[in-house]
Amino acid sequence: MGVTLKDIAAEAGVSLMTVSNVVNGKQARVSAATRERIMRIVKERGYVPSASARSLAARSSRLVGLLVPAVGESSLTIDPHTVEVVGMLERELRRLDYHLMLRGISRHGEITEALRSWNLDGAVLLGFNDVVIDRLTAADVGGVALVAMDSYSENPLALEVRSDDFGGAELATRHLVGLGHRRIAFAGPAFSATGVVRRRFEGYRKVLAEHGIGFDPDLVSEVETTHADGLAYGRRLPREHPDVTAVFTTADILAIGLIEGLAAAGRSVPGDVSVVGYDNADLAAYVTPKLTTVAQDLPGKAAEAVRLMMDRLAGRDRPAQAVSLDVALIERGTAGPPPAR
Amino acid sequence: MGVTLKDIAAEAGVSLMTVSNVVNGKQARVSAATRERIMRIVKERGYVPSASARSLAARSSRLVGLLVPAVGESSLTIDPHTVEVVGMLERELRRLDYHLMLRGISRHGEITEALRSWNLDGAVLLGFNDVVIDRLTAADVGGVALVAMDSYSENPLALEVRSDDFGGAELATRHLVGLGHRRIAFAGPAFSATGVVRRRFEGYRKVLAEHGIGFDPDLVSEVETTHADGLAYGRRLPREHPDVTAVFTTADILAIGLIEGLAAAGRSVPGDVSVVGYDNADLAAYVTPKLTTVAQDLPGKAAEAVRLMMDRLAGRDRPAQAVSLDVALIERGTAGPPPAR
DNA sequence: CCGCCAAGGTATAGCGCTAAACCTAGCATG
DNA sequence: CATGCTAGGTTTAGCGCTATACCTTGGCGG
């Protein structure tokens, strides 16, 4: 069916290797005239190299895995703010003539399997918690450039790209403190899920301490990153902690649920309670009032991931194996001064 | 580095083909005792088959492409409601032991290249307009099972999965008419982009006609599927057509922008103007008031796409090569009776 | 005039796997 | 006893490509 190197070689009256060299741009070995003749035939015949044959012979696949957790039989958990990163990764990699394989991972061993089976040159780990990354051993990932996103494992096998979560939390909390809030709650998922939440929590605590505000563990709530859980939290918050005037959350979707819950409990935002989200999802700008939130540098994240991976593939590792990207506070309508007593 | 069939064969004292047969579950050829011995060694040594070698030798890759338009150097255009479909596709395919390759397509020839280079068994075309699909010729796709999503090309080379766009529009428009609206505008992107919008438009027209409501082309506006364009449209609508009391839009995000624009122009939803969206995106439930919209069967879409593809791969094509999935109207808070005069 | 080198190739040997044809007991059958 | 069949393998011949070693020229310095 397909045109192969051999066909081209026969038509051009040269050896197969010469065609291979031309197709792969190995300039040194071929005269300009031959090269042009071959290229013309390649175009004419619509020759497309076989990636599997290449990968087999060259022991490099120019394939990068995009590994995403898949809980059991359920669908992939690509949250909306991750989608953008995926799109950007694909573009960057395509520019470098790499391809992306999307793979859900439900058991730990599947990471290894995917890497080995497809002979992946690299992989991006999206949304895995640090434990999974720490469990990867050198035996698992021989020679594969692994980039973990938003992890705080210090596993030297994995390159890491993340936002400055500590700094983002500082920004948000400082903003609330600056507006005059003193009873500021923290809502986010369990720490164990990923170091990200812990870093944000630590940023929050640090700012409280800086301003001499006593830390009250009661104001820290474990809330999943969903609208429903945010809603439930918002409903009970005024009852359980009527003195809370502001909430820092670790996700926009949670914040939006929270605001709806507060409304259901008769509290207005930002009149009675201020809310700050995290991620600056598109949707943050679509709700009313528009959400004050912390924005991550998504394009930067994708670009850094690719850069780190390419550096490792090229063997030029640099000292900094973990990159932390800047964040910014986006002030919109959900954070204001606390209500006058 | 990797363990190969040969290693296992040597250790088990059998030929390489026997191991291959065991690994691939070709029961007939191997005794149970041998099979178990081999499986044990396979487990012990952590053998993982090489996908490239398989794909080369077997002329089938168990790889499915997910082809998405990429405009020039820009990032992939996976809209949020598409992401869910992607996740579901991945899961379904993984269950069947297929893998997914995500690939942005910026030039027409790239579809062919991707198919051939990786020896894809199948591909899902996401978000391409009908023209692109019509341009695919048999030469391009020899033997590849192509499934186009949301297209209305009648190209026999492509299997097609879509929602009942005509019916969805009927549902929405009928709902508005039922509430008493007579001046109902239609807002969506240009028809040329995809047959989807045209089908929705036709559904809208049909219901108007059914109820003896004259069709006014002035009430049809070309608005891109973005918040910004919806906003702009909402701002100018009351000025240009003060008598319009309802708008049917082809996308939630557009509808949400529209509502904000109407508010800016001093019109309230649904008090002054009713709005119906399309897609039932998550965000439709997060805005205030919650958006009345048409829901598509996303899981069904993914499942049908995989089913059609597997049927074609197995050679059991059925007559219906295009599947149309049911839609449902989700009544929430943005559609009500027209204001009393 | 010889040795040597660079330029421009070619020949060979796989990469790891599978499809297909082939082999060989051992046993039942007519 | 020749025949055929089946179970349980083995052998052979690639799939399309790349790495590596090798082979020719012709030109040039010594």
From TrEMBL, chains A, B:
The HTH lacI-type domain, residue ranges: 3-58
Transcription found in the keyword field: yes
Gene3D superfamilies linked to this entry: 3.40.50.2300, lambda repressor-like DNA-binding domains
Keyword terms of this UniProt record: DNA-binding, Transcription, Transcription regulation
Residues in coiled coil: none
Keyword set includes Transcription: yes
Gene Ontology terms, MF aspect: DNA-binding transcription factor activity; transcription cis-regulatory region binding
Highest taxon in the source lineage: Bacteria
PANTHER family hit by this protein: LACI-RELATED TRANSCRIPTIONAL REPRESSOR, XYLOSE OPERON REGULATORY PROTEIN
The protein's name in its UniProt record: LacI family transcriptional regulator
Organism (species): Glycomyces terrestris
Top-level taxonomy: Bacteria, Bacillati, Actinomycetota, Actinomycetes, Glycomycetales
